[in-house]
Structure formats: structure tokens, C-alpha cells
Amino acid sequence: MALTSLVVCAEAEAVDVLSRVLQDLDIEVEISTNAKAALASARARRFDSMVVDCQEDAAGRSLLAQFRAMPENRNAVLIALVNSQSQVREVFSEGANFLIYKPVSPERALDSLRAAHGLIWQERRITPRIPVEIQTLLDFPGKENAPATLLDLSESGLGLRTQDQLPPACKAYLQFSLEGGKSLVRLSGEVMWEDRSGRVGIRSSNVPPTSKRILHRWIEQHAAAPTEDRSKAKVPAIEEVDSRLSAGLGLASACAADRRNLPRQACSLGAEVFCADGSVPHRLTLSDISTAGCYLETPEPFPPGTILTIVVRAREKKLCVAGKVESMDPGYGMGVRFTFSNDGERTQVRQLIAYRESKWP
């Protein structure tokens, strides 16, 4: 399917230049000479990009804001035509991603549109993307717990807005809650693009199995909803997540311990972990559990083969069981296989899983 662009401009010379450059970039062009016609076109079809003449400040900025608010074109790349540097802050605040200064020359148009072309392709997703507004925390090289707002979600990536500038092509880590605050999604991804308005596109690269299941189920439910019902999916802010949830952003990799076929329950429980040769507890987070093992989140996991004793308390339930580290992900955590010494320990694990299912479905 070809890329498409809506050009909203009444100046014939500028329209001619923009049309030629867009077509050279293999982008199909539709022209509108006034706001009313442009809005009608935008409601009738989805565009990958929109070029808006902002010569009349208020009218142009209003049109940018209306385009950005449309569910059908929420993720279109917006390019503003401006007269001077004084307009920059205003058009970016209304959602513009790129600028072209007037008068529009072939050189200026080509430079800006060529830069926008990569972002346009990044915005063309195969998987469904659900518009959202989720307050979250973001970790990236040089900064932890940076506030951010998720703007859309898919199984392959997400879009967000933040006031912090991220390093190019860096890895970012974040967590957010779905399903009424009862399910926490943790993931990491690679920054694919970033614009001057603070919007960032992230391609998911490491999603723990429990988070992947939660995300898949949530996207299936919301992708099936009518567009008007999901123009901004209602999800809780991260502050609303139950206090039992971990504050860390640790992630489980797709290691052997994560690929077991036994039923696994996602959770976020505090755990005290003792090495076989020590008496000092290490306070970690247990992020999922099965009858055979669990995953413990920690930035400093123990090497494979380490013998551990794990103590977990959940209200009136308590688990105390020995285990062996089977896999480790530096900076994230470790997969542990339980080594039961008696049937009582197996029963404790089953009771904890059953209790988790009944209390935190």
C-alpha cells in the first residue's frame, strides 16, 4: 500500500513544489486549499502525513490540533509550513513533527520531507495500534524514572511523549499498568525516532512472557472495539498500581526458564533471597511463578548454578523453598528452578499460586 499525504495550502507555487517532492519520494498526494475541505478529507480516509500551511498562525495551529485529535489520523506525521522562527514553539505544541520554512523551495522541501520520510514509514505499522493516555516512568542511559505519557500501543512497539531528550537509537525500559491496574507490563525497546515536540517511537525488543500475554490480550480486546470507543483507551496512571507492585523496571529475557510449558502466574511480590553460603537477605521482586520455578528481578543476578533459599510472604501466606539459578540476564534478573526437599514445599508453592489467582485475578 502506497504512502499518502494531505497537503493543505492555497499557494499554487508551494503546492507544485511539495507535490513534486512528495511524488519523488513515492508518496501519493491529495491537495486541499482550505480547512473545511481538508477536515472532510481527513475524516474520510487515513493519511500517513499531512502538510499544513501555518501562515495564518491561529488557523494553521488549529488545523494541526484537529488533525492530531482525529483517531483515524492521530499517528500521521504532521509537517508545518511556517514563515519565521517565532512560530516554531507554537506549531510544535500543537503536534507538528517537522517544519518547512517559506518560501517553499525544492531544496527546503526535499531536506525536510526526506527527513520525515523515515518517520512516516516507522508510523506505518502492520500490527494494530491503540491510542491511549497512560502516565508511566521511563529509564534510559543517563536517567531513571523519567515521567512520560504513552500515546499508543501495539504488540511490536509504542509511541510516547516525554520532556526528556533520549540518546539516538538507545535502549529504553518502562512499565505501565493495564486491565484496571491489576496487570503490570514491563518491557524494553529500541528508540526508532524522536521529534522536537517530545514524541518518541519505540520498537519493542524484550518483553517478558507474562507481559506479552497481558499486552496481547488487552490489544485484542481494544482492537475489536469501534474506533469511537477506543479513541483514547482508559487505563490507570502508574500511581494507581497496587503498592504490592515492584517499582523496578527489570525484564525477563526469552531464556530457557521463560519458555517452560507449565502454567505460569504473573505477579509482583517482594522476596527475600538467601545464598547457600550466606545469611544476609537479598530483597528482590518475584515477577512470575509456576509449580516448577520462578523469575526473580534484580539488577545483579547470581550466576547459573547458585543455590538459593527463597522466602515470599503474601498476606497470610508464606513460601519458603530452595532453588537453583538456571539462567541469568545481567541488569534484569534470573530464572530459578525449585529444588523441593519435601511435599510440604510443593504444597506451599501450589497454595501461593492458588491464593494469587483468587486475590489478584
Helix and strand topology:
Blueprint: E1 3-8, H1 12-24, E2 27-32, H2 35-44, E3 49-53, H3 57-69, E4 77-82, H4 88-93, E5 98-101, H5 106-123, E6 130-140, E7 143-153, E8 157-162, E9 171-178, E10 183-194, E11 199-206, H6 209-223, E12 265-275, E13 282-289, E14 293-297, E15 307-314, E16 317-329, E17 333-338, H7 343-359
Parallel strand pairs: 1-2, 1-3, 3-4, 4-5
Antiparallel strand pairs: 6-7, 6-9, 7-8, 8-11, 9-10, 10-11, 12-13, 12-15, 13-14, 14-17, 15-16, 16-17
Task: Put the structure in a nutshell.
The chain has 361 residues and is α+β, with helices and mostly antiparallel strands. 25% of the residues lie in helices and 37% in strands.
Describe the structure.
The protein is an alpha+beta fold. It folds into 3 domains: 3-123, Rossmann fold, CATH 3.40.50.2300; 130-240, Thrombin, subunit H (Beta Barrel), CATH 2.40.10.220; 256-359, Thrombin, subunit H (Beta Barrel), CATH 2.40.10. It has helices spanning 12-24, 35-44, 57-69, 88-93, 106-123, 209-223, 343-359; strands at residues 3-8, 27-32, 49-53, 77-82, 98-101, 130-140, 143-153, 157-162, 171-178, 183-194, 199-206, 265-275, 282-289, 293-297, 307-314, 317-329, 333-338. Helix 1 crosses helix 5. The longest helix is centred in the N-terminal third of the chain and has 18 residues, at 106-123. The chain is elongated, with a radius of gyration of 25 Å. Residues 226-232 and 234-261 have low confidence and may be disordered.
